[in-house]
Write a structure and sequence with these properties.
This protein is an all-alpha fold. 82% of the residues lie in helices and 0% in strands. It has ten helices and no strands. Helix 2 packs antiparallel against helix 3. It is globular and about 55 Å long. About 3% of the residues have low confidence.
Length: 192
């Protein structure tokens, strides 16, 4: 649960989609993140490595591009207080964004490929693995769905609209900082 609730790109994307779109967009992003977790759980449970560390670093660098793009789009959008925000094109686009963000999220990559796979004992039955997978996927969906719901409540929405410029700057800064961390990790891996 600590891994699920710790801040990272997934939380920023859910908040952004909820505020700039709607509760429906935020929940769609949360479900995309849960789908990404399902992919990582499957990879870890099957014991299949993503590939060489260089492939993992390349995935991280793709994540950098995605995070920088989101930061730029957040800054370019018209203020929420003036326009109601530039809505994401559709909930399916929010789902795809949540999925892409999770797949390229270094926290998810490291947790599932490097840590989680080693925590499942070799003697675990298929049902044990399936139960763990369901718990992880559902907990991700519930946590990020709750975050989407919270971010789109009237009180929070009003507060964020009143502080739209500061929210856009803070969100963009968080995305750029996360991109920097991911870039450092990816480059370090490529150079070793």
């Amino acid at each position: 649960m600590a891994g699920v609730v710790s801040p990272g790109p997934d939380a920023v994307v859910v908040m952004r989609q909820s505020v700039m779109g709607s509760r429906r967009h935020g929940i769609a992003a949360a479900l995309g993140i849960a789908a990404g977790i399902a992919l990582w759980v499957s990879v870890a449970m099957l014991g299949v490595a993503v590939g060489s560390p260089k492939v993992l670093a390349a995935v991280q660098l793709i994540g950098v591009v995605l995070l920088v793009y989101l930061a730029a789009e957040t800054l370019r959008a018209r203020p929420l207080a003036e326009t109601g925000g530039t809505r994401p094109p559709s909930p399916s686009a929010s789902f795809a964004l949540g999925l892409a963000t999770n797949i390229t999220n270094p926290k998810a990559v490291v947790f599932f490929v490097a840590v989680f796979a080693t925590l499942i004992p070799p003697h675990a039955t298929g049902w044990d693995k399936f139960a763990v997978a369901i718990v992880l996927i559902v907990s991700e969906a519930v946590w990020f769905g709750a975050l989407a719901w919270f971010a789109s409540t009237t009180v929070v929405d009003r507060w964020l609209r009143a502080h739209a410029h500061a929210f856009a700057l803070a969100t963009s800064a968080a995305l750029v900082v996360l991109a920097g961390i991911v870039l450092w990790s990816g480059i370090t891996e490529l150079l070793t």
